[in-house]
Amino acid sequence: MKRALVGLLALGALALAPAPASAAYPNGGIFTFSQGTAGKPGVYRSINSQLTRPGGSIFVTHFANWRADKLLGLGAYASVSVDFAHPVASRYMGPDYGFNLYAPQGVTFPSDAGWNVLYFPPGTPNVLTVTAGANNRESNYVFIDHPLANGHPDAVILVQQLAALGTAAAPPRNVGVWYHTARQRWAIFHQNRAVPMEAGEQFDVLVQPALTGGTRTVVADASTLRGNAVRLPNLVGGRLVVTQNWAPRSVYNDHPIGVRLNGPLPTNPYQAASAAEWEIFNEDGAAMPDGAAFNVVVDPSPGVQ
């Protein structure tokens, strides 16, 4: 079984840092990626490493205040904070190039944006690709068909939109998942209900049974809401990747989301932050609605010590 690599990945002078196997995801793992301040702004962001070059699937969430400057030899540990208020789609570019991330047309990636990346190799049984077609799409959503998801409203689903190239291709959009009780199927939907699900739109999907490993569903309420964010007070350290979930409270949130640490940050970017808690936040500054819900997959491994 393939060992997971949980660590920091960067291009150029930095190589993939060695890390212990992930206990939660023995055939995959979450790492944090950025080109740091040495990277150049661009219309796509390359995630090219020994880990991801064989292909498979990645699920990404923007990590707004990752810590990279010390690793890049730039001096003290000062938090890098970069918001990126746009959805992204991924595309596998082949064994020599790994994956690319794409934003909507006309959007440029900043040089030092960071991403939490959950990777699974080809053939992972609870990862599938969903393609919208005549038999599985309605209105603004497309159904997921997988035995671990069908009839399991408590499953934890992550989705990653796949990039289609060309001027007529569907752009990255704010999406979420919801459980269709009558059909007993999970579905992927556009948060903007006026935008229909187009034939050919594709998504990679991770299906985790309820309460498996580091999976959970978080619902915002009065005790956890903070402006444009929802606090995750019981989650410290590790890495996390997030997908919006309409099902618990039937709340839409048509905004790009990211994650960040709030509070004193660790002096080593691989160590768990003892006093900082994770937040999921709307990157465009919009208020987080009461009842907004999120599926969260956490790799608790703190990474290299």
What distinguishing features does this structure have?
305 residues; mainly beta; eight-stranded mixed sheet; seven-stranded mixed sheet; globular
Layout of helices and strands:
Layout: E1 8-9, E2 29-33, E3 44-47, E4 57-63, E5 89-92, E6 99-102, E7 114-120, E8 127-131, E9 137-138, E10 141-143, E11 156-161, E12 175-180, E13 185-190, E14 202-208, E15 215-219, E16 225-226, E17 229-232, E18 239-245, E19 257-262, E20 277-282, E21 293-299
Parallel strand pairs: 1-2, 4-19, 12-18
Antiparallel strand pairs: 2-7, 3-6, 4-7, 5-6, 8-14, 9-10, 10-13, 11-14, 12-13, 15-21, 16-17, 17-20, 18-21, 19-20
The sequence of SSEs as H and E is EEEEEEEEEEEEEEEEEEEEE
Radius of gyration using CA atoms only: 18 Å
Task: Please outline the major beta sheet.
Answer: 8 strands, mixed
Proportion of residues in extended strands: 25-35%
SS-based class: mainly beta
Helical content (DSSP H or I, runs of 4+) = under 10%
Shape: globular
Tally of DSSP helical segments: 0
Low-confidence stretches: 1-26, 68-78
Q: Please state the average pLDDT score.
A: 80
